Amino acid sequence: MGSTDNSSGAARKARIEEMRRAERSRARRNRTVVIAASAVAVAGLVVGGVVLMDSGSGRKDTAASGDNGKDTGDVNSESSGDSGHFTTGKDGVRTWQGTLSRNHVTTPVSYPMHPPVGGNHNPVWADCNGEVYTRQLHDENAVHSLEHGAVWVTYTLKAAKTDVEALAAKVKKTPYSLMSPYENQAAPLMLSAWGRQVSVKSASDPEVDKFFADFVQGPQTPEPGASCTSGAMK
After folding, report:
1. Contact 181, 76 (CB under 8 A)
2. d(Cα 91, Cα 83) in Å, to the nearest integer?
3. Are residues 203 and 98 part of one domain?
4. CATH for 140
5. In what ranges is there compositional bias, type Basic and acidic residues (predicted)?
6. Does 167 reside within a domain?
């Protein structure tokens, strides 16, 4: 039994390390693409400015009339798009039964649970490559991280300092995880993944390791292997 567990743990570590290498490679490619795209965009703006200056004098400005600025594909920014409810398993893990929407929105979202475990979210994710934040994150960015397969550790001022420090140390060495304070939650210490959530009594609670093992890049992940870097920075 012990050798089987060790083999499984080694395979998981190897898979996460491979993801980490892919992340670094993807981040390098993204930087190159951004630099090239920025250069093209600047050139386009210069050319566009010249054209507008040439044609602007003989043309009326119509931007303020009609519904030219309206994007008919916008999602209702006040709704998470979620429907359903939590069911609680024997291990205390709450699973969302129902729909968790995955549209990108750029305005605040009203989620039916806190912290949220899914729903419409910001196009930019919160960096989640073992990131420990000292300020509360925007829900909309953190939910995007969950979509990429991250586990999000949150805590309130009622959490013991020793537990916060121990959980922070665990997060820092775990790719696809992040941690931040979160005051509007039901328990001092909570762990969330896409569609999953659990409250734990302390950093040494056995459910901590189990939750990480089950849900870091777990089967619930909508976008496994998606980037956890180059998102919203600290």
Report:
1. no
2. 24
3. yes
4. 3.40.30
5. 14-25, 57-73
6. yes
Closest CA to 161 of 137, 187, 188, 183: 188
Work out the pLDDT band at 35, boundaries 50, 70, 90. very low
Phi and psi at 16, nearest 5°, equal: -70, -40
Tell me which of 234 and 85 has the higher pLDDT: 85
- Whole domain around residue 133: which residue ranges? 83-215
Per the CB < 8 A criterion, the answer to whether 210 and 185 are in contact is: no
> Both 90 and 206 in a single domain?
yes
Whether residue 136 sits in one domain with residue 31: no
- Closest listed residue to residue 100, CA positions, set 149, 147, 151: 147
Number of folded domains that form the chain: 2
Q: Which amino acid is at 6?
A: N
DSSP-based three-state secondary structure for 121: strand
pLDDT score for 232: 73
Q: Three-state SS string across 147-208, please?
A: HCCCEEEEECCCCCHHHHHHHHHHHHCCCCEEEEECCCCCCCEEEEECCEEEECCCCCCHHH
136 vs 151: CA distance, rounded Å? 16
CB-based contact 149:226 (threshold 8 Å) = yes
DSSP state for residue 113 in the 8-state scheme? S
Phi, psi of 232 (to 5 degrees): -75, 125
